[in-house]
Design goal:
The protein has about 180 residues and is of the alpha+beta class. It contains seven helices and six strands; from the N terminus they run H-H-E-E-H-E-E-H-H-E-E-H-H.
């Protein structure tokens, strides 16, 4: 009888160890967080993005210009926190400066459109912009995904969203002044 109990206890322990190993998904540390970002950006045509609930959303960056912008991003994870299925990391990004590149394009007046000009331009040295933002990760069925919020999208576009907002504000101010 003692021998049978030992087998049962041994079997239960083995089962628990297997289950613990299978559930070994933990909140990533700094190095793992960095690798998750590197892996996410490695697929420049399809960055793994999701909403804050972990539901995948289309992450295709599309045009060659956008893909070139993402490919030129440098990053460093400064600190990480999280629990269970969510993690956050303070990340320093160095990206191509969209506003400076758009201004340069407008001044040069090249024959090709911006999305064709940009990848070639990014092969040389280019103006950069630095961001330090919190990046959210959510674990989904296929692994960790980046939460697509406006801050992250602004970083991925080299500040294009921020630039667009400021251009709209300037336009609104001009329209207001003209209407007075």
């Amino acid at each position: 009888m003692k021998r049978g109990k030992k087998w049962i206890v041994g079997g239960v322990i083995c089962l628990l160890l297997v289950l613990l190993a299978a559930c070994g998904e933990h909140t990533p540390n700094q190095e793992e967080f960095q690798q998750i970002l590197v892996d996410a950006f490695a697929e420049k045509e399809e960055i793994r993005l999701c909403n804050d609930q972990g539901t995948p959303i289309s992450g295709g960056v599309g045009a060659a210009g956008a893909s070139a912008m993402v490919g030129a991003i440098k990053m460093e994870v400064l600190e990480v926190s999280g629990k269970d299925e969510k993690a956050a990391g303070q990340v320093k990004f160095i990206t191509p400066d969209f506003a400076a590149l758009a201004e340069e394009y407008a001044e040069e007046k090249p024959t090709e459109d911006f999305t064709q000009w940009l990848p070639e331009r990014l092969e040389e040295s280019f103006p950069t912009k630095e961001f330090e933002v919190e990046v959210q990760l959510v674990r989904g069925e296929s692994g960790w995904m980046l939460v697509a919020d406006s801050t992250l999208m602004n970083v991925l576009t080299g500040g294009a969203l921020e630039w667009y907002e400021s251009v709209n504000e300037e336009g609104n101010q001009i329209a207001e002044e003209a209407g007075k």
